[in-house]
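I am writing to request your help with a piece of structural work I have in hand. The matter concerns a single protein, recorded as an amino acid sequence and a row of backbone structure tokens. Could you please explain, in whatever detail you think fit, how the structure tokens follow from the sequence? Thank you for your consideration; the sequence and its tokens are set out here:
>
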Amino acid sequence: MTEAATRRLPGAPCWVSLIVHGLTATEDFYSQLFGWEFRPGPEQLGPYVRALLCGKEVAGIGQLPPDRHLPIAWTTYFATQNADATAESIRSCGGTVAVGPLVAGNAGRLLVASDPTGAVFGAWQPAEHLGAALAGTPGTPVWNELLTRETASVAKFYQAVFGFETEAVVSADFDYQTLHIQGRPVAALHGVGHALPRDRGPHWMTYFQVADTDEAAARVVELGGHVLQPPREGSSGRLATVADPEGAVFTIVRPPGS
């Protein structure tokens, strides 16, 4: 377990959030799955709570207005020192800024955007709220990965906007690039071609650490969610892809040696 409430380098994933229709029911699901507790957060975009583990903030959940019917999905936020400059860079590189930049109380400033392929992500300029304050323990985000058709063109977008260095896997049948900041891997791009779900399109996937992947997958089902890809061994550990009762997809993983 590590304390993570430090100011991130620009481009580093710093926060994940989810906007849903049923806030109370969603709180109950994640509370029973991950042991999260909740307290109110900024409500500039409507009712919003921050999820806590051991009293430390690890994620955010908000509620959609009743008349809004947007896809329910976890959103990865990348740190920025200047949300306005990031917004301009996103637009100039072929992306779209959908929300903001706007002020979230005393916490900081945010924007929500999509890359040229349509994958949604956020950028966070911290003030009082630096991002996730705990890492390396079950119930915390452990990795963020973009699932897209191919990585070559979209990698240029993220390099230009956030300054990532990239490291590609040299393989004829595996399209994967790791994003680095100052030599440290922080996220990845995974080109899956026609295996990309047609009903979702390119999207960022949040990985949450668990103590036991098989038990956590069974618990997801007990709580009304679904297992989309059953537990399996991978390079990042034993993992499974699941969805909560409102359809938000995420990956649960027990990292090697944890």
About this structure: The chain has four helices and 18 strands. The chain has a mean pLDDT of 93. Helices lie at 23-34, 83-92, 152-162, 213-222.
